[in-house]
Amino acid sequence: MGKLLLLDIDGTLLNSHKELPASAKSALAQARENGHELAIATGRAPFMFEELRKELDIDTFISFNGQYIVHQQKPIHKESLDPETLESIYEYAEQQDHPLVFMNETKMVSSIDYHPHIEESIKSLKFLHPETEAGFHADNEIYQALVFCEEQEEQQYHDKFKTVDFVRWHRVSCDILPKGGTKASGIKRLIKLTGHSIEDTIAFGDGLNDLQMMETAGYSVAMDNGHEQTKAIASYITDHVDNDGLAKAFKHLGLI
């Protein structure tokens, strides 16, 4: 059996311009031909990477940092945020003038018509500022929310809401996830179906939300453009994503 390759998107599959390098696309195709299985592992919602997934012909993924997992196009795990907790966070954040964005597997909705922090962070993912929709977070399963605040304002949320995790992914935004919901827990659920062992997994990432995944996987590769904490725990550090880092890592590991 080949390896299970767990691929982060932003800064790993996609370069600093949010584009898929030709070298990465070619490396992924060669790795599949050599018997390795490809899976995306991302903090993004499924609708945010559907085109990329189809372009790469990948039908297995861990999304929302582990809250929504699909194996060969079939959902195998869903874990939404507790509605009462989410409402409490919404009310508290509103008092702090911190907007929220709510996401399920098909769309995202903002708590406010417009906010520059939402514009800045969502735009970095090549998406437009989401629209508002009355009652969305109360009427739908919400797998991930975003609270928009700067780093020095974040600790109050950790202190007040102990049953969820806040994971910073942008200068002005944190993911809100069910406690313990990580890409690492997603790996453990996924390999029960793929037949791989932990030793057969290789994680590729760059961000803070990749830390636990990289600690859990049998082997881990950090991109040179990654966060210093991510690079510190990686088994191997490859080149910058803009300099064919992913393809170079595949060659170094003998996957292609």
Automatic annotation (TrEMBL):
Annotated Pfam families: Hydrolase_3
InterPro entries reported in the protein's UniProt record: Cof, HAD-like_sf, HAD-SF_hydro_IIB, HAD_sf
One Gene Ontology molecular-function label: magnesium ion binding
Residues that span the membrane, as ranges: none
Cellular component terms (Gene Ontology): cytosol
Protein name: Cof-type HAD-IIB family hydrolase
Natural source organism: Planococcus koreensis
Phylogenetic classification of the source organism: Bacteria, Bacillati, Bacillota, Bacilli, Bacillales
